[in-house]
Amino acid sequence: MHTTTEDLWLSYLDELSENDYFIADDFITDEFYDQIMNYFHKLEQDNELKKAGIGAGGELQVKASVRGDFIYWLDEARDTELAPFFEFRDEFMYLLRRFCFLSLSGSEFHLAKYPEGSHYDRHLDQFGARSNRQITILLYLNKHWKKGDGGELVIYTDSGDIIVEPIAKRLLVFKSDVIEHEVLTTQVPRYSLTGWLLHQPESLGYLFG
Ligand code: OGA
Ligand code: NI
C-alpha cells in the first residue's frame, strides 16, 4: 500500500516526538484509494453509516451542533477490503513501540462522512471514557478537494494553528492527549478513515461511539 522506507518512518517519528504531529502526503496508491472509496460508497448505499455521538457509554450524546459526521466502525475480520490499511497499522504500532516506547495494545478505526454543512467543534480525542487513546490517525479521501470546499482540519499546536486540507491520500498523525483540533464546516461531502491507537486492548467507545 505504501513504500515508506524505514528512514522515512524514523523522520516521521522524530516529527511526532518534536511537534506532536506529522503529515505524509500520497500515503496510499491510487489503486488502494479506489478500493477504499468503492467500499465506502457501497456501505453508504447499504445505509451502514450511523450518526456519530460524543462521549462514550453512559456519556454518549448525539449532538449535530458539536459533531455532524456519520461513521462506520471497522472490523478487521469483516472489512477485508481494507486489509492493507491494517497491515500499515501493525507496522506503525511496531515502530512506535520500538522507537517511541509507547505501550500500545489495541486500536479502533472508523470511516467517516461529513455531509455538506457539517463540522466538528474544537476538541481533544483523549478524554473521559476515551482516556486510552494515545495516537490519532487520519487518512483523508477527498479526491477533487479544492479551496472553498471547506472541511479543513485546524490543529492547535504550541507553535500556532495549522490548517490541514483534507486532500485524498494525505495521512495525518497526532498525539491524542495534547493536540486540540477542529473540523471546519464542509461545503461538500467529506470522507476520511479515522482511528486511534490505544494503550488498552478494549475500548467501550467501540460499542457505543
Ligand atoms: C475525530 C476528528 C478530524 C477529521 O473524529 O475525532 O477530530 O479531520 N476528526 O476528520
Ligand atoms: Ni478528533
Structure description:
It is a single chain. With 209 residues, this protein is α+β, with helices and mostly antiparallel strands. It has a single domain, classed as Jelly Rolls (Sandwich). Helices cover 25% and strands 28% of the residues. It has four helices and eleven strands, in the order αβαββαββββββββα. It has helices spanning 6-19, 30-45, 83-100, 205-208, and strands spanning 21-24, 50-51, 70-73, 106-114, 120-123, 133-140, 153-157, 160-164, 171-175, 180-183, 190-198. It has a seven-stranded antiparallel β-sheet. Strands 5-10-7-8 form a four-stranded antiparallel β-sheet, with no helix packed on it. Helix 1 crosses helix 3 (83-100). The longest helix is centred in the middle third of the chain and has 18 residues, at 83-100. The radius of gyration is 16 Å and the shape is globular. The mean pLDDT is 90. Bound molecules: N-oxalylglycine and nickel (II) ion (NI).
How would you concisely characterize the structure shown here?
With 209 residues, this protein is α+β, with helices and mostly antiparallel strands. The chain contains four helices and eleven strands.
